[in-house]
Design a protein that fits this description.
single chain; 316 residues; alpha+beta; six-stranded mixed β-sheet; 9 helices
Length: 316
C-alpha cells in the first residue's frame, strides 16, 4: 500500500511539473508575441519612409553547416531617396561555434559592377539594390552571402536604445559636429541612440571613411558585449518587432530570432576585418570620382582566411 501511495504522489508531481512547464511556455510565447507586436506597431507609427525596394529578388546561396553571412546595408533613406549605400558590412555567425565576425567594406572600393562596368562599390546598391550588391561582392571577392538587411537610419537609434537603454560608454577622440546634426565633445561619455548614430556617421576629419569604419566596428562590438544581459534578452521580442519595422530583410522572423538569441547569449568576442586591408590599395581619381584602387587577389585571400576556420586574424 505504501508503494502505491509513493507512486501516486510521484505521478502527481510529474503531472504538476508538466502542467507548470506548459503554462510557463505559454506565458513566454504570449509575452513574446505581445512584445513583438508592440515593437512592430511603434515602428510602423513612427516610420514614414519605406525600406522596401522594387529591385530584383535576392538569390544568395543556401545556408551551409550553420554558417550564416548577412549583407548589412546602412542606407541614407532618412534623406528621402534611394541613394547609395552609406554603410556596407558582412556579418558572419556560426550557429555551431557561436563565432561572430564582422567585415566592413569601404564604399569607395573601385570594382566591376555586373552590367554597369567599373564604379564605386556603393553604387551597386543604387543601381540594383541588395541583389546587385551581392552579385558585385561575389564577382569581385569570391564570397557569396545568404541574407541581406537594409537598415533605415531612422530606426537605428530606437533599436539601440531598446538593446542598451543605459547607452554605451564611448571615448570620443575629438570634437565631432560637421554633417551629423549634433555636436559630440571630446572625452569619455555615455552615448545613446541618436548620439551613437552621429558618432558612427561622422567622417569629416583626416581619417575620413577609415575612421568611420573603425567607429562602426567599435560600436557594434561594444553593443554585442553590452547586449548580453537579462534586460536585453527579455526585450528581444520587442527589439525584433521594432527592427522589423525599420529593416528591409529576407531573413524569416524565426531565423532572425534564432540569430538574435544566439548573439545575445554568446560570450565570443566579435572579430573584425576591413577591406581593403592595409597595404593593398592606392587612392586614385577616375571618372566617377575619388576611389580606392585595390589589389583584388590580396583582398580576396584576406577575406577567405578570415571566414575560414584557420582565419582568426582580426584586422582593423
Amino acid at each position: 500500500m505504501g508503494r502505491l501511495k509513493k507512486r501516486s504522489k510521484r505521478k502527481r508531481r510529474i503531472k504538476l511539473f508538466f502542467l507548470t512547464f506548459v503554462l510557463l511556455v505559454g506565458v513566454v510565447i504570449t509575452y513574446s508575441i505581445i512584445q513583438f507586436n508592440q515593437g512592430l506597431s511603434a515602428a510602423k507609427k513612427e516610420n514614414t519612409s519605406s525600406t522596401t525596394s522594387n529591385h530584383q529578388d535576392f538569390t544568395g546561396e543556401e545556408v551551409k553547416f550553420g554558417e550564416i553571412k548577412v549583407l548589412l546595408i546602412g542606407s541614407d533613406a532618412r534623406e528621402g531617396e534611394q541613394g547609395r549605400s552609406d554603410t556596407l558590412m558582412i556579418g558572419y555567425y556560426n550557429q555551431n561555434t557561436h563565432d561572430v565576425k564582422l567585415v566592413s567594406l569601404m564604399r569607395d572600393i573601385y570594382v566591376d559592377i555586373p552590367g554597369y562596368g567599373m564604379n564605386k562599390l556603393n553604387a551597386a546598391y543604387s543601381f540594383g539594390g541588395p541583389e546587385l550588391l551581392r552579385q558585385t561582392i561575389k564577382q569581385n571577392f569570391d564570397t557569396d552571402i545568404n541574407y541581406y538587411a537594409t537598415v533605415d537610419f531612422n530606426g537605428f537609434p530606437k533599436i539601440i536604445d531598446l538593446i542598451v537603454p543605459d547607452g554605451l560608454n564611448i571615448d570620443v577622440a575629438k570634437r565631432m559636429s560637421k554633417n551629423i546634426g549634433m555636436t559630440l565633445e571630446k572625452g569619455e561619455q555615455t552615448l545613446h541612440g541618436e548620439e551613437l548614430l552621429g558618432y558612427v556617421r561622422f567622417r569629416k576629419d583626416s581619417e575620413s571613411d577609415f575612421g568611420r569604419v573603425r567607429r562602426q566596428q567599435e560600436v557594434l562590438s561594444k553593443l554585442k558585449d553590452e547586449a548580453i544581459s537579462i534586460n536585453s534578452i527579455v526585450n528581444l521580442p520587442k527589439t525584433m518587432g521594432v527592427a522589423t519595422g525599420y529593416v528591409d530583410t529576407n531573413i524569416s522572423n524565426n531565423t532572425l530570432f534564432s540569430i538574435g538569441k544566439g548573439l545575445l547569449t554568446s560570450n565570443q568576442d566579435v572579430e573584425t576585418l576591413r577591406l581593403p586591408v592595409d597595404g593593398s590599395f592606392t587612392n586614385q581619381r577616375v571618372n566617377v570620382g575619388a576611389v580606392l584602387d585595390i589589389d583584388l587577389d590580396q583582398n580576396k585571400q584576406a577575406l577567405k582566411d578570415f571566414f575560414s576556420k584557420e582565419g582568426n586574424l582580426a584586422q582593423e
